[in-house]
Amino acid sequence: MEANYRTASAALTAAQQDLEYTVLTAPFKGRIARRNVENFEEIIARQTVIWLQNITELDVIFDLPESVVRSVRGNSSGDGNLRSSETAGTVRATAQFEGRAGRSFPLRPKELATKADEQTQTFRATFTMDAPEDFNVLP
Fold first, then answer.
1. In this predicted structure, what is the pLDDT of residue 88?
2. CB-based contacts of 49-57 (< 8 A; 24+ apart in sequence)
3. With the CA atoms of 77, 80, 84 and 89 taken in that order, what torsion angle do they form, in degrees rounded to the nearest 10?
4. In 3D, which of 134, 124, 68, 50 has the Cα closest to residue 97?
5. Residues 129/107, Cβ–Cβ less than 8 Å
6. CA angle 35, 36, 40 (to 5 degrees)
7. Quick one: 108 exposed, middle or buried, by C-beta within 10 A (0-12, 13-18, 19+)?
8. What per-residue confidence (pLDDT) applies to 79?
9. Contact, 107 vs 126, CB < 8 A?
10. 68 closest CA partner among 114, 129, 123, 128
11. Entry pTM
12. Which residue of 50, 74, 76, 96 shows the fewest CB atoms closer than 10 Å?
């Protein structure tokens, strides 16, 4: 009886731990972009269940010529990531959206490729901006 009790107790502990693993939490406020599983479908560890879109910030990605990259790259951390507080003033970039004439949104440097594209000889740059509150911009 004692062995059965210990087995049942261990099974209960494992079931409680498994129940804790059924809760999904996002690292940021967002919107579900795509769901890869259906309700009550069994999944395995590390399987992608949903794709989330960050709705507070948007990334804008474009290619820059080397002459412009020099003014952005000035304060990179060496791994391609940029610290926006240190790069403030070196490059000023804004985004404009069709249908929103006359409005521009400031961009902050986020990431910069350290190797040029072989064909275009440009560098992939990622800037970020706060999502507009008065209209939707989809990633």
1. 43
2. 49/24, 50/24, 52/26, 52/28, 53/139, 54/28, 54/29, 54/30, 54/139, 55/29, 55/30, 55/31, 55/131, 56/28, 56/29, 56/130, 56/131, 57/128, 57/129, 57/130, 57/131
3. 90
4. 134
5. yes
6. 90
7. middle
8. 52
9. no
10. 123
11. 0.60
12. 96
**71-106-137-134 Cα dihedral, nearest 10 degrees:** 180
pLDDT at 74 over 70: no
Lowest mean pLDDT among 21-25, 109-113, 129-133: 21-25
Residue 68 corresponds to which tokens in the numbers above? 């412009």
33: helix, coil or strand? strand
